[in-house]
Structure formats: C-alpha cells, structure tokens
Amino acid sequence: MKKNFEVISVLLDFYGDMLTEKQQSFIEYYYNHDLSLSEIADNEGITRQGVRDAIKRAEAQLFEMETRLGLAKRFEEVRKGLGEILECAEIINDSNMRTGLSRDINEAVVRIKLVVQSLGKE
C-alpha cells in the first residue's frame, strides 16, 4: 500500500473523529507511527489483510467526506486568500509610506493585518 501522508494527515484533521475508534487507531499506527500492516496486525491480534481492509475503508471514508463536504479544500482556499490579502496590505502600506503617509490608510492596513492574523490561526 502506498502511503499518502500529507493528504491523509489533512483529512484526518478534518474528519478523523467521524471514523470508528478502530479505524482511527489503525490509521494512527500506520501513518503517524509508521508501523507496517504486519506490525499492526500482531499488536491488534488480527490478520494483516484485516488491517489493510480497515485502513483502506477508513481512507475511502475520509476521501468521501471530503468529496461531499469539501472542508479541507475550502480551508486551503481561505488560507491562500488570507495570504493574498496580507500581500495586498503590504503593497498598500509600502505605497502609503512612499507617497505621503496617510494615517487613515496606515490604520486600515494595521486592521487588515490583525483580521488576517486572527482568521489565520489554526
């Protein structure tokens, strides 16, 4: 089985609580603790195939939830958007500094940066 650490990690952050405890623990062992299917099977007292099937089902559920809800995709879009807003605020601030320093513009830039920071907290 090919491990897709980055994608599964993000999906687990959003949807992990929707999996069964068994699925969560198998995914945790496999992705976060880097245990092999055989090692998980030995620890849990089931077959390697049983572990593989449980992980595959859990992965499929995570992808299905993302397809239906799109929370991870939306989160990434918002994160990128906040980065662009911050870049624009910097451009406005730089222009303001070069062209006469309007106090209103400076205060607006500071407020924009504070909002971006508060929304960008994870």
Instruction: Give the biggest sheet.
Output: none
Number of helices: 6
The coarse silhouette is rod-shaped
Order of helices and strands: HHHHHH
Instruction: Please tell me how large the radius of gyration is.
Output: 22 Å
Report on this structure.
The chain has six helices and no strands. The chain is an all-alpha fold and 122 residues long. It folds into two domains: 65 residues, Winged helix-like DNA-binding domain superfamily/Winged helix DNA-binding domain (Arc Repressor Mutant, subunit A), CATH 1.10.10.10; 48 residues. The mean pLDDT is 92.
Can you give me a brief rundown of this structure?
The protein has helices spanning 5-15, 21-32, 37-44, 48-69, 71-98, 103-120.
